[in-house]
Write a structure and sequence with these properties.
β12 (about 215-220) and β13 form a beta hairpin. About 25% of the residues lie in helices and about 25% in strands. It contains 7 helices and 15 strands. The chain starts with a helix and ends with a strand. α2 runs parallel beside α4 (about 70-80). The protein has about 260 residues and is of the alpha/beta class.
């Protein structure tokens, strides 16, 4: 160990786990010119949301040939449009080899895991089993996961994250702000920023707000942007829930 480490001098950095909201581009096939055209069309629908976001390319439903996958072109196209590709999810061994050659991170797909991580999976399964026992005993005792309560306005550029349970905000969520929760999100004021409920896949999660003016609302990865939300319940008190993979907006007085 170095003298610096043993002398109590603070290290230059620490590694910590972090929850980061990311968008996945689910790729079915790749055509360079069409890719950029469609990407620009999507960005034009919500330019504030897509600017400088991290992006994962999902290959789980990709149906083209491996030789068609030019990750360098995809990265360049996204970068020209202020989107940053950081990794790929799923894919075959050859596709992942190409992604690695483009300096992209490799993430396991929803229906697969790398064989090299089997030992880690076993350990994770044991941890999950133990957590399930703890959760069951907690549920039996009648103690739901605690809600995170925020009493101050959530301002532009802020991110509020509730990794367990619900998130309750007793003030407005301003445009450019982002609120995330494992469970439901309750906003007792205007919701003008982005709200992502059920971030760990809970499709029963809901978003409640006193005035729907959101840039984006997402439940378990299914989302609607501002233009789609304005068709129903805009600037009124609503709840938003997931039904048959579609987000449904319902006025609170009719819920």
């Amino acid at each position: 160990m170095s003298d610096t480490a043993t002398s109590g001098v603070k290290q230059g950095f620490q590694l910590k786990s972090a929850s980061v909201s990311m968008t996945a581009l689910e790729l079915y096939y790749f055509d360079d010119s069409e890719f950029e055209e469609v990407l620009r069309d999507k960005i034009s629908q919500a330019p504030g949301f897509f600017k400088d976001i991290p992006l994962i390319i999902s290959l789980e439903k990709y149906q083209g040939l491996d030789s068609e996958l030019d990750f360098f072109k995809m990265i360049g196209t996204c970068r020209r449009n202020h989107i940053h590709v950081i990794g790929v999810r799923g894919g075959t061994d050859d596709q992942r080899r190409l992604a690695r050659g483009a300096a992209l991170a490799l993430l396991p797909g929803n229906g697969q895991r790398d064989r090299t991580h089997e030992a880690e999976q076993a350990a994770a399964a044991a941890d999950e089993a133990e957590a399930a026992v703890v959760a069951a005993s907690t549920s039996a005792a009648g103690d739901p996961p605690p809600a995170k309560i925020i009493s101050q306005p959530v301002r532009s550029g802020q991110q509020i994250h509730a990794p367990e349970g619900d998130l309750v905000i007793l003030a407005p969520v301003q445009a450019g702000a982002e609120v995330l929760a494992a469970g439901n999100i309750h906003v007792y004021g205007p919701l003008r920023g982005r709200a992502l409920a059920g971030i760990h896949g809970a499709e029963s999660a809901r978003v409640f707000c006193q005035s729907l003016e959101a840039e984006l609302v997402s439940i378990a990865g299914h989302y609607k942007i501002s233009e789609d939300l304005q068709d129903n319940g805009w600037k009124s008190a609503v709840q938003i829930q997931l039904r048959d993979d579609l987000l449904v907006v319902t006025p609170l007085d009719k819920a």
